[in-house]
User: Fold this.
Amino acid sequence: MKARHRRFAWIAAGVAVLGLAVALVLNAFQSNLVFFFTPSQVVAKEAPQGRPFSIGGLVEAGSLQRTPNSLDVKFIVTDTAQRLPVTYNGMLPDLFKEGKGVVAQGSVGADGVFRATEVLAKHDENYMPPEAAAAVDKAHKGTRNGGMSMNSLSTSK
Assistant:
């Protein structure tokens, strides 16, 4: 085998190994990628079926139900336009409260109930994930204040 052919074989093998490594990394990234949806998007069937995703919004006031002697919790997440029932089995974060922002990861069952595997509460009174803030603002458009968004109301004087 000539030196040129041997060098070409090594380069081809290196490119093949590099391609395999990139394919494995992309596959791992794709399987761990979790998308964010609002209750309006979930109700409109825009969320993936049979695959975990995150929902975000506000915990509806008066919707929190705890099962006695259990870690089972039921509550409703809303973006002020649509409501989505959520069930969760586990310890809720200390900052979890009705009327406050929440992000939950899980999937929707055949009955339309979101089964959360993880629940996160917002960590600061002024913070809301940008996606959740945009979704709540979008839900407010056209339903209040003659179609003006909450952001446009706070910036226009």
In short: The radius of gyration is 23 Å. The domain at 36-150 is CATH 2.40.50.140 (OB fold (Dihydrolipoamide Acetyltransferase, E2P)).
